[in-house]
Amino acid sequence: MAFVFAWALLGGGADRYDPTRDAISELAALGAPSRPVMTAGLVALGAGMALYGIALRPRRTWPLPVVNGVIALAVAALPLGGAYDRAHGVAAGLGYATLAAIPVLGARHLRPLWARLSVVTGLVSGLCLLASVLVARDGLLQRLGLTVAHLWVVVSALGLLRSPRSSSTTAPAGAPAGRHR
Q: Can you say whether residue 108 is alpha, beta or left, with left for phi > 0 and alpha for psi between -120 and 50 degrees?
């Protein structure tokens, strides 16, 4: 949530910045006045995605959000405006791909209707993020693709918190060894 708040608040108030046309990474570029806050938002995103992935264990998909979190940290560590623009772009692209894949691969753990919605969410996110590198209004499509997928992650995380089943690999108290999920 800190990432979304950072780009929403900073993007709306930055001089000569159009959130519908300009990428979020420009808010964290070298020399940008918003760089410290936007970089903190990216770091919070990275940590949050990694923790979400760990909470998904023992599901087979748990490494994907962890990888996405590490990639978010790489995006933060490779700001635009210097020698790292190409590496930043590669990291951002990998982040887009892993983020869009999370709801698609997470669908297998859901009831049929929710599974279909999950796949559609991942596809919409992926298509928006792909289009964001191809069209002039890349900022709008980037924000839409990220928001759709991050909203799915938030709802999924809330579902984990409400689930009566443990999502960790630690057996509940009193459970026989080797019998937990």
A: alpha
* Other CB atoms within 10 A of residue 71 CB: 23
Residue 4, both tokens: 């979304």
Distances (CA, A) of 110 to 38, 107, 171: 34, 5, 23
Question: What are the tens digits of pLDDT across the range 12-56?
Answer: 888 899 999 999 999 999 999 999 999 999 999 999 999 999 999
- Rounded Cα distance between 71 and 161, Å, is 25
pTM to 2 decimal places: 0.88
Q: How far is CA 145 from CA 30, 59, 78, 178, in A?
A: 25, 25, 21, 40
Q: For the chain, count helices (H), then strands (E).
A: 6, 0
Q: Enumerate residues 6+ apart whose C-beta is below 8 A from 168.
A: 55, 57
The pLDDT tens digits of the residues spanning 118-146 come to: 999 999 999 999 999 898 779 999 999 99
CA atoms lying within 13 Å on the CB side of residue 143: 19
Instruction: Say how far apart CA 108 and CA 79 lie, in whole Å.
Output: 36
Domain boundaries of the chain, sorted by first residue: 2-162
